[in-house]
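Support reply, case 0932

Customer input (verbatim):
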Amino acid sequence: MSLEKMNYLQLNEEPLNTETKEINGILMTKTISDNWDKIWNFQAKPDDLLIATYAKAGTTWTQEIVDMIQNEGDIKKCQRANTFDRHPFLEWVLPPPLNSGLDLAIKMPSPRTLKTHLPVQMLPPSFWEQNSKIIYVARNAKDSLVSYYHFSRMNKMLPDPGTLEEFIEEFMNGRVLWGSWYDHVKGWWDAKEKHPILYLFYEDMKEDPKQEIQKILKFLEKDLSEEILNKIIYHTSFDIMKENPMANYTTLPSSILDHSISPFMRKGMPGDWKNHFTVAQNEKFDEDYKKKMAGTTLTFRTEI
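Our regenerated output:
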C-alpha cells in the first residue's frame, strides 16, 4: 500500500476541524485564522493571475477555462493534475497529507494562476502593489445561496449548514464563511475602477460562453483560433466537466467531500433557486436584498 493511500486512510478516521473564527469581522475557518499572518503576507508577483469569487460562483469552471486558454486547448496538459493542485486556493488549509493552497502557491514557478474567495478588503496587499491581474466572477445571490447550502452539506470541512431555512437566515446576515455575499460582490465591483480586474457574471457565461471566453482572452492578451475556442467551450461545458475527475473533485476522499450527499458539480443552472425557496422565503429575501443592494450600480439576473 502506498504511503499516500495509508495517509488517506488515516484521514478517513479523523474527524475534520469545522471550527470557525472571525478575522476582521469576517467568519473564516479556524485553520485559516491560525494561518492568517502568513496568508496576509503572501507575496504576489506582477505575472500572477488571480481568480477571485464568492463561494460557489463558477470558480472551478473559470479555472478550467483559464487553464485551457493558457495551454492553448491541450486537454492532456489540462488534465495534468487536480484543479486544486494546478491553481492553488490561497487561503485554504487542508488536513495532512494534502497540500495547503498557500504552500503550493509559494512553491509554484511563475507564471502562477491562483484562486481565492477572500473579500476584497482581505486580499493580501501584495496583489495590489504588484498590479496582478484578477478575474472576478459573480453569481446571483439566490443561486449562490442554494449552491453554497448543498456544498456545505457535502463538504466535511465546513460547518453544518442546518436546514435551508436556517442557512437562508445566516446567508442574509453574512454569518457564513467568507462573510456577506452582498459586501463581497459590491467590494470587488468597486475595486475594478482602480485595478486590472475583469468582472464577469455567471449568468452571462452560461448564456453566451463564447462571448465571455473572448473577454477573458482579451484580458489575458491571448489570441486563439476559432477551432481552439470552440474546443474550450465544449470541454468546459458543465456536462463534460462533471465527468472530468481532474475538475469534479471526486479524487478527494469522502471524509472531505461526500459526493453521496450532493455532487460537487450539482446543477450549474441559473434559476435553480426556484426549486428551493418558498414564496414566503423569496419575498423576505427580496425585501432584504433591496436594502442591502441599494445605491450600487451592480445588477444581477436570477434566471436566463
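We compared this against your earlier run and they match. Two observations from our side: The domain at 19-140+176-256 is CATH 3.40.50.300 (Rossmann fold). The chain is about 45% helix and 10% strand. Please reopen the case if you see a mismatch on your end.
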